[in-house]
Amino acid sequence: MLGSIACSMEFEDFDLYSYFYGLVKQIPEGYVTTYGDLAQALGDPIAARAVGYMLSINEDPDTIPCYRVVLHDGTVGNYTHPLGPMEKVRRLRADGIPVVDGMIENFDRYRFRDFKTDQPLRKMQQYQEYIARKYSESGAGEFRTVAAFDVSYEERRAFASMVIQDGSTIEAYVISDGINFPYIPGYLAFREFRFIKKLYRKADLLLIDGNGILHPRFAGLATHAGVLLDRASIGVAKHLTRSTRHQDIIYMQDRPVGVMIRKNMIVSPGNFIDVNGSADTVRKMWNDRYPWPLKLAHQLSTRHAETGGRVSEYSIESAHELH
DNA sequence: GCGACAG
DNA sequence: ATCTTGTCGC
Ligand SMILES: [Mg+2]
Question: Region Probable methylated-DNA--protein-cysteine methyltransferase: what ranges?
Fold first, then answer.
């Protein structure tokens, strides 16, 4: 029964930006809060930097009072404005907050933390635990068709690509759509999975830029996608995080979850494959020490982001050249 | 003070 | 990821 509840809430359309700006509006005039307190109200203190980022791209500073968000040590912090933090100080003083030398006097007295929130990131963590339970390490081991995915970004727009190899045939697809979730460490799947789902065509293996079970809750983007699309999947990341390494094997809480197959290339199983199988599979499909479908997907999405998505036909021919 | 924080 | 308003632990 709990499983069926989880199935009905994949969070793909959840707009964290709107939810977040709603929280910022709760800060009363004459009070301040911190980036960390807002992150806690979202459900996880690790989101503090994402809070700063979302404030920085706020398009409506007249109704969303960014300037009431300050650093944990009582200094006012940054502000995107021609006048910079000076303008932040001016607005705080206009609210009656005493600021001396960029520091709020009697900080505790003015601090607001009583947000009305249901901490959405907590429910998302629970959903990740459900995804992790669905991971299976056994599968076919041989894959005829491979689909590789990557996503590039502007502030509120994403350009996502998929490159499919079926024997000697290569097809490439690009889509563009708005973004409803910022990058938050540990929550990448809630930002990127919906683009992968939209692009997805039947393939035996999904190759994904990010981690699989190499994740604090064993449910990185590649596992999230593999489980929800019921496909074999592998995560390929450039940076190692939140784990320990002995030789080239990566561990999380003493469980092997990935392999460093070279500097700046970490492979972890997403679904229907194990740690060694995922590393062997990626090693078989690289060209110049990089799995070529992923490289192509990366180039496709970045190129489309740079040109604003205008028809810059980066075509099948160049795909063949790279292969 | 410096590094960690998947993209 | 892009070029950017954090926080915590060592
Ligand atoms: Mg990427």
Answer: 1-91
Long-range contacts of A239-245 (CB under 8 A, 24+ apart): A239/A264, A239/A266, A240/A266, A241/A185, A242/A215, A242/A216, A243/A214
Q: A7 an active-site residue?
A: no
The residues of chain A that CATH labels 1.10.10.10 are: 1-118
A118/B3 CA-to-C1' distance in Å: 32
pLDDT tens for each residue of A150-192 = 999 998 899 999 999 999 999 999 999 999 999 999 999 999 9
- Centre of ligand 1 from the C-alpha of residue A163, in Å: 14
Which 209-268 residues of chain A approach strand C with CB closer than 7 Å? 209, 238
Domain A1-118 sits in CATH 1.10.10.10: yes
Q: Residue A188: count other Cβ atoms within 10 Å of its Cβ.
A: 22
Protein CB footprint (7 Å) on chain C nucleotides: 1-8
Mean residue pLDDT of chain A comes to 93
pTM exceeding 0.90 = yes
pLDDT, one tens digit per residue, over A99-141 is: 999 999 999 999 999 999 999 999 999 999 999 999 999 998 8
User: Regarding the domain with residue range A138-318, which homologous superfamily does it belong to in the CATH classification?
Assistant: archaeoglobus fulgidus dsm 4304 superfamily (3.30.2170.10)
CA distance A36 to A52: 9
